[in-house]
Amino acid sequence: MIANRYRLPSSPFRSDGLHQRRKWEERAVKAILLLLALVSVLTTLGIIYVLFQETVLFFRQVSFAQFFLDTRWTPLFLSKRFGIWPLVNGTVLVATGAMMVALPLGLLAAIFMSEFANERVRRILKPFLEVLAGVPTVVYGYFALTFITPILRAIFPQTQIFNAASAAIAMGFMILPMVASLSEDALYAVPNSLREAAYALGATRWEVATQVVVPAALSGIAAAFILAISRAVGETMIVAIAAGQQPKLTLNPLESIETMTAYIVQVSLGDTPHGTLEYQTIFAVGMMLFLMTLGMNVASHLLARRFREVYE
Amino acid sequence: MTTDDGRRTTDHRPQTTNYGRQAVRAGWGVAPTFEPNLPRRKVMGMVWEGVALLAILLGIAMLLTLLVKVFVDGLPYLRPQLFTEFPSRFPDKAGLRSALQGSIWLMVMTALLSFPLGVGAGIYLEEFAPKNALTRFIEINVANLAGVPSIIYGLLGLGLFVRGLGLGRSLLAGVLTMTLVILPIIIVSTREALRAVPASIREAALALGASRWEMVRDHVLVYSMGGILTGMILALSRAIGETAPLITIGALTYIAFDLRGPLDIFTVLPIQIFNWVSMPQEAFHRLAAAGIIVLLALLLTMNALAIWLRNRLQKRW
């Protein structure tokens, strides 16, 4: 960036041949680095291509009406039905539950870290949250199945072994640090002059935090929330372990359900031959998942940019 | 601003500064009613601050419970056979040998492949890229890839590497897939590390007649290597905990022979743990817990290494 502004003088200490060689080396390096950077673009194109290709094959055999209007998802049974809604229902149910844990706790944690905690307390608490975020998801799945589920079953005896609630709670705690950290960044960016003005008007610490700082950082917090939802929708291992494999339309979190991601895992674990309709279903489901998370990521990005308050 | 009968009035404040505009738009941030009782407000504030602290402590309590639970469950199975034996139908004979081999191979190969790719792309975007549409497109693209669920990468790997390139369910297919998963993380952390090097270093190098690449190679990279390596290790620790994309490309759970090369079929620690968790028998759950202890120990070691590197190599300006 900086170097753009300078024209390199041809050095008097180098022979012309060497100078030429350096110029070529410079160009070659730049071209190679550009190619490396383009790998990420190729990745996106690859994702779209692979998903699109198999999804097209899928929709040659299954109509849009069957996919979007049916209420049963049984592609692995003899009587095949291809209604996507039970999987979407399971995904939304678990994600909603996870957000009921992650959003309030994450925002409160962010407010505490940004507004109340002094440097020493922050330095003690922060690593814990980082570890919480770094634990592999398969570990959360284990925890949900062997710890949270038994507790739920003790409280609500009708709870099934595999259930949405248990996965949702574990997922909520997994996503909490992400909500906390992104929201904290947003709160932190609010300039002190706003806080000082509120204090000068006689507000208490909590009032300053909730009635001045949080509203001023609202777009950043909303962007963080949307990213968290997107993360919950795409999360795989916790639901594959703890939420079950029964796609159904239900709002009862104590029942066994199946999410879109868990379905992809279920099919992948079996030995589904390439080219069959079962094989293509995971790409159709994957396409749906990709579009949902992409939509949310773009929304989050736009929200953070569109409403970013510029403070000097 | 609210009138007595609750109607919102127009905001008459001068609009020279734009902060808080959206707050007002949201109807928030303007106290709906004024509570004159100061002691009461202070007490309420302290109560709520306590609640906020409690939210963090709840998260930490959850983490500690998880760790204690895993250790209590897994400790009896944390014995030498866990590392020397292959998986088995009998919990007492089962071990992580093939999974450990797979994880280590996967990590090393992914590191070798993703380091040049990610760091190169980061260098390009930070040091060489002109401000044009292509650069913006690449940047948006990287940001977006970071938000794509990992299982989608698994589908990409399945379609492209397993089927398209005909690599089958091999370690190599897994490495390529995992490289793409962690690439955005490496690119972002590399750019941050490069950005931390002050402009004066660059200007000094250029003033002495270095070309752009010489400046980057001999000065900027040297100073930012600590940050780049830290980001690299953190990305790899994400890679060894990642399960979903490898299941999707068809990494197997039951492998009873040593891994010999990149074209062999393979399994990794988290997949073996997943397999054991999925078993109905209690003994396998305990094996899974033992596997989790190994996985967490590995992650902890890598994180400690990253912190050590950061403290040792990072330069404060």
Tell me the CATH superfamily of the largest domain in chain B. MetI-like
Helical content band of chain B: 55-70%
Order of helices and strands of chain B: HHHHHHHHHHHH
Q: C-alpha Rg of chain A, in Å?
A: 25 Å
Mind explaining what this structure looks like?
Chain A is mainly alpha-helical. Chain A folds into two domains: 12-61; 85-306, MetI-like (MetI-like fold, Orthogonal Bundle), CATH 1.10.3720. Chain A has twelve helices and no strands. In chain A, helix 1 crosses helix 12 (277-306), helix 5 crosses helix 6 (164-188) and helix 9 (218-234) runs antiparallel to helix 12. Chain A is globular. Chain B has helices at residues 21-25, 38-74, 80-84, 97-128, 133-146, 150-164, 171-195, 199-207, 212-241, 244-248, 269-278, 282-313. The two termini of chain B are 46 Å apart. The chains are: A mainly alpha (312), B mainly alpha (317).
Structural features:
heterodimer; A: 312 residues; 2 domains; 0% strand; globular; B: 317 residues; mainly alpha; disordered N terminus
Brief overview:
The complex is a heterodimer of chains A (312) and B (317). By secondary structure, chain A is mostly helical. In chain A, 73% of the residues lie in helices and 0% in strands.
Topology:
The complex is a heterodimer of chains A (312) and B (317).
Chain A: H1 16-61, H2 64-69, H3 85-116, H4 119-134, H5 137-155, H6 164-188, H7 192-200, H8 205-216, H9 218-234, H10 237-242, H11 260-269, H12 277-306
Helix pairs in contact in A: 1-12, 3-6, 3-9, 4-6, 5-6, 6-9, 7-8, 9-12, 11-12
Chain B: H1 21-25, H2 38-74, H3 80-84, H4 97-128, H5 133-146, H6 150-164, H7 171-195, H8 199-207, H9 212-241, H10 244-248, H11 269-278, H12 282-313
Helix pairs in contact in B: 2-12, 4-7, 4-9, 4-11, 5-7, 6-7, 7-9, 8-9, 9-12, 11-12
